[in-house]
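JOB MANIFEST
job_type = single_chain_structure
chain_count = 1
residues = 411
[input]
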Amino acid sequence: MAARYKHTGAIDMQNRTRKERRFDETEHDLPDFSPSPSASALISTDKAYQLLSYLGNKNPFPRSITNEDTIWLLDNTAYHNEKTGKWEAEFVAAAFSQNSYCAIIDAVNAVATKIDLDEKDPNYPTVEARIRPFLQNIKPGAQVKALQRGDLPLKLGPGGRNGISSDIKGLPDNGGGALIPTFAEVPKGANGLLEMKTFYAEPEGWGVISDIDDTIKITQTSDPIGILRTTFLDKPEPCPGMPKLYQFIHSLIQETSPWFYLSASPYNLYPFLRDFRQQNYPHGTIILRDESWMSLSGLLTTLTLGTEDYKIDRIEKIHSWLPRRKMICIGDSTQSDPEAYGETYRTYPGWVKIILIRKVEDIAAIGIEAKNEPERFEKAFKNVPREVWHVFSNPAECHKIIQDAVSKRAG
């Protein structure tokens, strides 16, 4: 499948950026706290659970959640199954132990050294708090019991080797635009994100797919030290003008329209990004990579390698849920958003109505100037009508573009 995207040049740009910005050097010096297979077997309290987790949700003997575990329930979007006409949704949960195989202070010191942060700095505890989700022991094969709206019991999982479970569940009809809560049923002492919300999206209307890093949140995805600082230390900041643009779009396409926030970030960052989304942008489903647990170097790798293939794969999933929606795709020039959205348009003609690409001009974020060259965009959007894709520097430029497109297709 990857060969399908080779003509876009995204991989070459990613490799060139990593080389010029010395990603390999930074990654080499960061610790990986994942236990080796032999170590895992030695530390595991139950080797059988470790082996059974290879079966994923087909595991006949799931492990239960205890009072020493951490559970995350991820917000999702319900849709009409095109074949049955009934509501369903993908439920994703993650399970960890509250303990860690490694000393958290070692990881904190490693990051602090890279970003020149003194241990006496008052922001030092911030690094410790944000790094913890990378270090908690994964709980493979766990099953989470949950209750939607107080009356629909759900069993999520068992999860796989990475502690993550994914289940498609049939749901009752709550009407388009409904936002229904689900609560994890766990023993006292268990913690985490124990409440999630399911947004009900009707088959037709508008929808939004948005990148996160350097599209709506300043991340500096083309600079390894910048990524570490914005992820583990700095207060997360919205990209200038983007909250106002998203509020404008939200007001035009109605509150019954689904939003998807698609990032190459690992799932370790879900709580951090969910809080950021809640504070600055419309509610929506955050879709992240399910890899690089317990690896700091893995954070840099997932943000900078294979992003196009990954994003197209996830966009294909969204299309399978909502093939009759009119989609607005928003991204930036730092990674492979132009290539991913261009390929999506060509694959599903008529599904994507608008593509907006934020032209990032900060050299730390952009990495190499070639990413902003007109030739890059012309190649990425080959055979995509010129009125569909737009590269902007000031988000205010997009208001009329969105207004005209929505008005043109009203009704």
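[summary]
The first helix runs from residue 10 to 20.
The chain has two domains: 2-27+202-408, 34-200.
exit_status = 0
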